[in-house]
Amino acid sequence: MDGAGSVQKMSGSVVGAQRLGKTFGDGSVVALEDATFDIRPGSFVSLVGPSGCGKSTMLRLIAGLIGKSSGELMVHGKSVEGPRTDVGMMFQKATLLDWRTAIENVLLPTEVSRTVTKADRKHAADLLRMVGLKDFLFAYPSQLSGGMQQRVALARLLQTGVDLLLLDEPFGALDEFTRERLNVELMRIVTELKSTTLFVTHNIAEAIFLADQVFVMTPRPGRIAQIVEVPFDRPRPLSIQTSPEFNALVAEVRDILGEDH
């Protein structure tokens, strides 16, 4: 991309990066290098690649949890200079507070910023119903399965009201059946809310099933080897994973990853 064109394009993106890089320590560990991309409003982007290729680093840069070493990074048209309140992040572990009920955990982001209102409580309850936990509003984490805990964490993320969601392998520790069900729920919810979503995974089929675009990463130093467009409308049924078109995309991504090993 040239200078003027890239600046104009980034201004219309939720997230835009030009030659973004991140090194750690004395600069000898290059986690991310020369990453250039634009993420459209309401789109779902999956990041897939080998361990240590910079996927999680990219999410942390976008959230402002760590600073960039080079390049340009903008979120909602503004340069990322530190932690942002307009970005929500979800990790592999639910990290719920054991002494708080499901609805109390969901309300935590609101409590941190201001006094919780009756409307906030209703919204939290509605979110728990949305993620399929209408009968578990007052259950404690110890009374919930791993998949149910992740549903609470997702509701807590949505409670923040932000429209940019960063999910770092949120379902990686779950069994395959639970993971598939949560992928369907996640796709339905973010499509309904028109949220812009970045999702890190090691699972190629999961990446394609969820996304409009798949960023295929190289081994460290992490670069975006290729951006693969996914042509299926969202939301999608699980059965699409048996289609020849879907499996052709899986093979394409696998080939790209293979070329970079």
TrEMBL record:
Enzyme class of the recorded protein, top EC level: hydrolase
Protein's UniProt keywords contain Transport: yes
Alphabetized Pfam families for the sequence: ABC_tran
Record-linked SUPFAM superfamilies: P-loop containing nucleoside triphosphate hydrolases
Residue span, ABC transporter domain: 15-244
EC number: 3.6.3.-
Alphabetically ordered keywords of this record: ATP-binding, Hydrolase, Nucleotide-binding, Transport
GO MF term set: ATP binding; ATP hydrolysis activity
The keyword Transport is annotated on this UniProt entry: yes
InterPro entries from the UniProt entry: AAA+_ATPase, ABC_transporter-like_ATP-bd, ABC_transporter-like_CS, ABC_transporter_ATP-bind, P-loop_NTPase
PANTHER family attached to this UniProt entry: ALIPHATIC SULFONATES IMPORT ATP-BINDING PROTEIN SSUB, TAURINE IMPORT ATP-BINDING PROTEIN-RELATED
Similarity field: Belongs to the ABC transporter superfamily.
Protein name (Swiss-Prot/TrEMBL): Bicarbonate transport ATP-binding protein CmpD
Gene designation: cmpD_2
